[in-house]
Amino acid sequence: MPMRTQIGPLIVLKHETDSIQMLSSSSSSMSNSSSSSMSNSSSSSTQSPISEEPVTRNWLDLPRDVTSTILLKVGSIDILNNAQRVCLQWRSMSYDPTMWHTIDMRNSYAPNDMEFDLEMMCRHAIDRSYGNLVDITLDYFGSDDLLTYVADSTNHLRRMRLLSCWDISEEGMIEVAKKLPLLEELDITISNLSKDALEAIGHCCPLLKSLKFNMQAFRDPHFDFDGEAFAIGQTMPNLRHLQLYGNKLTNDGVLAILDGCPHLESLDIRRCFNVNLGRSLGKRCAEEIKDFRNPDAPIDDYEFDHKSDPESFFYDYSSGISDTVLCDVEDYLGLL
């Protein structure tokens, strides 16, 4: 009969005790062996690390909405000229009308240096929007015909940006304004347009809330003109944001804007050197305008160099160009 052994409150047989001792011994041995193995493994991994192969990713596996966002960041010119040629998927996406609700034709090239016709390319982009164009940007190109094509192709245009579009005339802008009743934001920077175009825009675009009408800036006390400021004050009562960089308005023009645009939240008149805020006008601007930029405020965040385009010096103001300005222009162009 096997002997019984007392282990705490339990009673086990003798051969079971021997088995327990053997298991305990075996477990201890395995534990030591495992620790030794782990130690050796750790030492081995420290001495000779295993290099991981780089993970390759396929752009075609990206979700469609992510790819669309990337392509939109590229810009309309590069989509039409490059991206749509990369693969069938990108070409298919480049024909999706939702890709062309916004057409951004910004470019860093002089039009004469480009190997392709920007105006023809822009028309092609407009066609792909299938009448749903909402936002368009034209830089350093454009004409009355193109602007008319834009207006005739959509009833939804809410934002338009025109930079150095010298071939867009006063008459062309006046006619197009009649077709843009939903326009809310307009940026006209460095152009041939003046007060007549602004009056037409004010009358035809009652929803306009943001206007940028920027030009070059020169200090000349004999060269002032409030025509654009008066046009804005008389026809754009719903404006919230106004930028008139380098304009020739005077204190009278600022007062006309303050009186005619009661909802104005931001007013930027940097480099408007004919404005002398003084105590009363400066106080009124500070009290009524949440974000006011005075004529001498820093221009670090202004997108364009105010001396980058000498053509704008010949802007046709009704007050005429003084001899001082002509001398400044000739000096800048290196003619003196």
UniProtKB/TrEMBL annotation:
- Coiled-coil regions listed: none
Comp. bias (Low complexity): 24-45
Pfam families in UniProt: F-box-like, LRR_6
- Kindly give the InterPro entries that the UniProt entry links to this protein: F-box_dom, Leu-rich_rpt, Leu-rich_rpt_Cys-con_subtyp, LRR_dom_sf
Q: Which residues form the F-box domain?
A: 56-103
Q: Where is this region: Disordered?
A: 22-56
Q: What is this protein called?
A: Putative F-box domain, leucine-rich repeat domain, L domain-containing protein
Recorded source organism is Lupinus albus (White lupine)
